[in-house]
Amino acid sequence: MSSNKRLRLSDGASTSSSSIQSSFKYDVFLSFRGGDTRKNFVDHLYHALKDKGIYTYKDDEKIEQGKTIDNQLIQAIKDSRFFIIVFSHNYASSSWCLDELVEIMECQKTGQQTAYPVFYDVEPTHVRKQTGAFGKAFLENKNKDTAGKWIEALKGASNLVGRELHATANGHEAELIKKIVGEISLELRSINSGIDEELVGMETRVNDVVSSLKIGADEVRMIGIKGMGGAGKTTLARAVFKCLSNDDFEAKSFVKNVREVSNGSDGLKKLQEQVLSDVLNVQVTLHNVDDGKDMMKTRMSGKKVFLVLDDVDHIEQLKALAGGPKWFKPGSRILITTRDEQVLVAHRVNVIRDVVLLSKQEAISLFSRYAFGRENPLQGYEELSGNVVRYAAGLPLTLEVLGSFLCGKDKLEWVDAIDRLEKIPLKDTLEKLELSYISLEDDYKEIFLDIACILKGEDREGAIRILESCGFHARIGLKVLQQRSLITISKDNVLGMHDHIEEMGKHIVRRSHPDEPNKHSHLWKYQEIEDILANDTGTEETRCLKLDIWRGNSIVLMKGLAKMKKLRYLENYPFLHLPITFQANNLVVLEMEYSRRMVQLWEEGEKKVLKNLKFLSLSESNLKTFDFGMTPNLETLCLDNSYNLAKLCMPASCQKLNFLHISHSWLMTFDLGLTPNLETLSLEYCACFVELQVSVACPNLKILDLKSTRLRSLDLELFPNLENLDLKECLELVEMNAPVGCLKKLGYLNLSGCLRFTEFEFRGRSEPKDNCSSATLDLVGVSIDPCPLHSNSNLSKLRFRCSYKEYLSSSVGNIEKLISFGLCACTDLKKFSDIICSLQCLTKLSLKCNIPEFPKDLGQLECLKELCLSSTRIKHLPDGIWMLKHLKFLDLSGCALLKKLPEDLGRLECLQKLDIRSTGIMHLPQSIFGLKGLHLLCLDET
């Protein structure tokens, strides 16, 4: 979440809740008879309101010397939002009080101001009719000329909703005061709920946080707001604090700059003193932090507080300032802002919310306010403003700084400033962002710089393999960086990073030697790299080098690698081979993506051993053979799209090989040899591949991908921990051996397109049960004897294509976690209906079969989200389809015999997409308008 401006709050109680509307100077005006209540009830009420941060006018506190009292009081009344009228025995004896009352009741008529009567030792009827002790006090004013106005004012005020001392609190003044202050606070909060109009996009963000705080729940709740520097965490926290400042809290405290203050001398102790002074409403002095903890535990537990701790960066700060729920009275709320999510996780806060950066329109609005003093750019500045907004990438701090800097400058100055940003990053932004980097451990700093300069945009798992190959603890490192808001990981598992954070990382690399790139640890700029290599000015300082497409002399450039003796990472090497002069002893990662020109690894056919190389990618190379002997410690090898690769020279043992991916090669056979640590093996789309030779167990193999090969048989006996098996489109596959129990961890099996596959055989591991040695479980073309699947509760996806047989054993229904199932060539669905309907966890069902009717009990599949009946011969859908409460996608395309949709279709509340192209449907039912979630309806053009 983000905002656009820092809230301009001054110190003191008055500023935290005053200015409810710009026309009101005071929150509350107190009208009372001094002799009756000034030193008791009204005095306590006034201080209670003041302690709550409610700015209150009380005549003996506010009357300025030298001014006429009546004029000053009238103006104070007009400047007040609420009036508390304390009717006591002698109130009506004062003409000043009665004049106040008349003015109050006139203001009440506007609807913008509210009068609130309090009946202190008098009853409303006595005020209304001027009887009893109240009536006696009024006698001396009854015959005055203005008595008529006074009487009308008394009647009007007595009819308003208010509070009676005896009826409300049974005579307890403290209880009555508490109720009055609480009700006024609630009214002020309601009025004050509108967010400062100058804070762009803040209302939704504040409401989200307030919702998480669950105001009113009788518990202690701690909420965290996390995000990168400059994203608006502090502004959001201040807006929330202001919004809730008049809520039913007994005390409140906003502690800013916790990180900065706590780093100073006695910093934590000073912060504790601030919190205690705010909460207890007295000046507190502590001896040390431990004394502060003890005092906070004992003294704050009796008050319901709202505490904001801004910019926390260490768990010790939270332990000192908000040690745990028991420190606070139920109903208290603690809001924490930080750049480091782990601080919040370690302190076990209830909810963690990410600060949301500004949208494009919000960013334009914020920038325009700073640059032009209006909501939108001036005419002629639209495109330039758009360039600034794109550069800022939603970061409020950058927009504020640039808006202020460009304010009043002409177009040429704007162009120059924007051009400068491309070369010299904004200092204010970099300094704020770098705070997150400075606090990292050294190895995490290295990982961060590798991502900023080299690995941004990489797949997460691929980046982990690369970083681990370089000796880093990558998984925990990426988690730390993500928690510090320095990187992001998308839903597609791609490493991302805000543009300014990337800019900051690259600036860190370059700043020590800004004019000597050959001394930089990371090189990524094309022109700089070409100059260094062409002039042979490389140094041992360079550890990571990312090459790109080249236009220069390849021989000269290759030789330029000779002096880079400590290079550990080399990416996108575009030449024919590595030069003999290249001393690659420290090379850990060699990534030659799209190295189409490479025909051999080393110049002149050399076979120099890369003893430290752990990650090697030679995708799209022209290599005909690869010798694992040159890479004895290799952990990852990618040979994607190796169209000329025909041979792998595999030594007897590749102990460290973990990941091997080859595609589109000419390989015919492959002997795994001794590869005990291999976890992933992919030989997909190798059209000539006929045999996988396995003589030693691969206990760690989890993923085996052999799709679109010419494999005829497969023995799975030596892969006991296989989780994912893909044999899609293995057209020659006829048999597969899987001993009983060897597929217990299998979670995904794809046999789609295995048209010749008829035998899934078990050999010699168990005796047949119940005399069924000749019985088979038929997966519509896949015969299994006995079945390894029906007892496999881990299997979540099963894919196959119908071929020869047309029955399905009921054992398949026991695959408890199956979520995806499809049939595409069967003609008699009756044989499968019971089995399909028993798959209770199914979320996706595809029945692209030549079937004439729909399974009647399909409504039992409560988890179903996707249903495809494309190109079937069904004539109608069953009336019970509405029972699929979670269905989001219904595909009926190509069902030419389907003439209409059921009338109860509108009860599918979750349906988002409906495809009825190429069907016989001519009219839509009225119920389709009940599909509130539908956002895509596919119809024929006609």
Automatic annotation (TrEMBL):
Gene3D superfamilies: Helical domain of apoptotic protease-activating factors, P-loop containing nucleotide triphosphate hydrolases, Ribonuclease Inhibitor, Toll/interleukin-1 receptor homology (TIR) domain
Matches recorded under InterPro entries: Apaf_helical, Disease_R_plants, Leu-rich_rpt_typical-subtyp, LRR_dom_sf, LRR_R13L4/SHOC2-like, NB-ARC, P-loop_NTPase, TIR_dom
A Gene Ontology BP annotation from the UniProt entry: defense response
PROSITE patterns from the UniProt entry: TIR
Annotated SMART domains: LRR_TYP, TIR
Keywords of this entry: Leucine-rich repeat, NAD, Plant defense, Receptor, Repeat
UniProt xrefs under SUPFAM superfamilies: L domain-like, Outer arm dynein light chain 1, P-loop containing nucleoside triphosphate hydrolases, Toll/Interleukin receptor TIR domain, Winged helix' DNA-binding domain
Domain TIR: 24-188
GO molecular function: ADP binding
Protein name according to UniProt: Toll/interleukin-1 receptor (TIR) domain-containing protein
Source taxonomy: Eukaryota, Viridiplantae, Streptophyta, Embryophyta, Tracheophyta
